[in-house]
Predict the 3D structure of the following.
Amino acid sequence: MFTGLSAFPLTPMSERGIQEAAFTHLIESLTAARVDAIGALGSTGSYAYLTRAERARVAKLAVASAGDTPVMVGIGALRTRDVLTLAEDAQLAGASGVLLAPVSYQNLNDDEVFGLYDTVCRALSVPLCVYDNPGTTHFAFSDELHGRIAQLPQVRSIKIPGVPGDVEAVRARVERLRRLIPSDVTIGISGDPLAATGLAAGCDGWYSAIGGLYPRTMLAITRAAQAGDTEQALALSARLTPLWDSFRQHGGSLRVIATAAELQGLVSHPSLPLPLKTLEGADRQALANVLETLELE
Amino acid sequence: MFTGLSAFPLTPMSERGIQEAAFTHLIESLTAARVDAIGALGSTGSYAYLTRAERARVAKLAVASAGDTPVMVGIGALRTRDVLTLAEDAQLAGASGVLLAPVSYQNLNDDEVFGLYDTVCRALSVPLCVYDNPGTTHFAFSDELHGRIAQLPQVRSIKIPGVPGDVEAVRARVERLRRLIPSDVTIGISGDPLAATGLAAGCDGWYSAIGGLYPRTMLAITRAAQAGDTEQALALSARLTPLWDSFRQHGGSLRVIATAAELQGLVSHPSLPLPLKTLEGADRQALANVLETLELE
């Protein structure tokens, strides 16, 4: 479950609730495209904005619609008490694994974050992926802390943020981390614009937000990298530069991906939880032009 | 309500629930000390870690125990939908005002934050204090955005983070902000170690975390500043340097204040929501020594 392309779909919603039919359709598209795994309720799935009941419902819908494709479910929350409840709900929903980020309001220290993972792992019967996303959690893992947490028996993967630099530089960083973790714990890259480089540098998988909307295009990059054709993987990713630029321009991928899904009629507007908004006006039109050029699928 | 010393008490809790008797006692101590206002469910009150029902209960307890002292209640949440519900609950509990921070998981932009305050203000019948705390929300207000939001009719105060520098430097910063906001909107300083300077520099009030535990000591600083005795206010604050150093050492004031409350028997251990922990071992002993020297009250 923690290798290859894991696709993280949107959870489309308005102020009135979740767009369940649209969400189910997104999941079915991912399964049809034969992604390696589905990550429901990741950051792109807006897990942090939903109630416990809504998250349980989304987890159930994802598992029910995914067929044989394994589903991992995000269980992050500010409070350990709530993470434990969400872990139970995810397992009851049939999740094959869970994804846990150290979400913070008050800044966390290493001891507190280790304590969180230790407590949660003791309560889990499915594998866990450590979700390292400093852009949203504002917690910076050291490699040493990753090493400690990866010794916990349920931990099977680490989702690291995009690493800037060329393939050799990223390979050095991945190998530094790999020396500190057990050999059966995989390393997956996120940060879509840098993912092809990450895969070429030896990451075992790609935890992809954009893959939740355009799985076939992102599978082509993934399969090229897996086959050792680094040049092709990098070229396929470089072709998407206007999209990656759009992510950078709009403070990350979420608003861009949600706007793209609205533009293609896959979800209704509004699709993000207020106060978050999709792109408007000239920004929206510019994205529409990019999508028309790139022919993503 | 939005001038002088506003004291922000802890909401002591364990994994089993809120320590209601201890919380009530904290509120009664603040009222007995005659603070100008009480801020329930601020950052020090761990609002972000509690359920809607728990927050409504804490708001009711605070108002019931505060006598004639006005109580403002924190209504921050990631989602506009939830902020609106919390605003209603706070008003039903009898809050005299509310405090709203733009809490984020996905980074927010100015347009989204303005939209949040605009929507919430339309639903409010009590005054609102804008809570600017980039250390926890990871949103940086520009003075221009403060100016736009302060025009909303319910906005009556802005709680700004501590401003480094001497009195003249801080005065320049406060006056720059004041030129952009209506004259009936007050500016309150937070960041306890820098508060005496802030008051001396013309801030109308001090939104104080440590004042929620040691109101008399912090009132002495506030009253000296209000009487124009800048030298005395700064000297009283300088005497607390070992405490301010402790805040800096432990990533902010919360863990220190909660440990102090545990050490003094005002709350039971544990008093913070996991994964957050109070100080242990040598750090805890060092704080006990500081408290013994300073004789705070």
Notes: The radius of gyration of chain A is 18 Å. Chain A has a mean pLDDT of 97. Chain A touches chain B through 32 residues (CB under 8 Å). Chain A is about 45% helix and 15% strand.
